Amino acid sequence: MPHQKLTTDTSEFKYYTTDSNGKLIIKKAYLDPFLNMYNGEILTFRFSERPDTQAIMAALEEAIEITKDCPYRTTIHSDQGWAYQMKRYVKKLKDNGIYQSMSRKGNCLDYSPMENYFGIMKLKM
């Protein structure tokens, strides 16, 4: 069922830039997507320069808005990362009737489509 099961995670990407003197600098960017497990579509995402609560919450709020058409309860699978244990995040899910599913430590089976997405994305870069 579209929009019934989503998965999310945060992934770090390194990129290179130069400063005003032409010196090479390695920087990091963080991607926070929400993937529809029905068809593998990324429903919403945010980029940030550091792991960021605001980016995750903004992507979550947009995902909630997009999935309101689902006649069944929506479930969001994730790992046990700090972002998905925040009171604000958990409350937002509960307030919108969304079930939170978190995999046990060392077990990424529930959100493996997200891990697979990141793996393919990083391979192509």
TrEMBL record:
<dbReference type="InterPro" id="IPR036397">
    <property type="entry name" value="RNaseH_sf"/>
</dbReference>
<dbReference type="InterPro" id="IPR050900">
    <property type="entry name" value="Transposase_IS3/IS150/IS904"/>
</dbReference>
<dbReference type="Pfam" id="PF00665">
    <property type="entry name" value="rve"/>
</dbReference>
<dbReference type="InterPro" id="IPR012337">
    <property type="entry name" value="RNaseH-like_sf"/>
</dbReference>
<protein>
    <submittedName>
        <fullName>Transposase</fullName>
    </submittedName>
</protein>
<feature type="domain" description="Integrase catalytic">
    <location>
        <begin position="1"/>
        <end position="125"/>
    </location>
</feature>
<dbReference type="InterPro" id="IPR001584">
    <property type="entry name" value="Integrase_cat-core"/>
</dbReference>
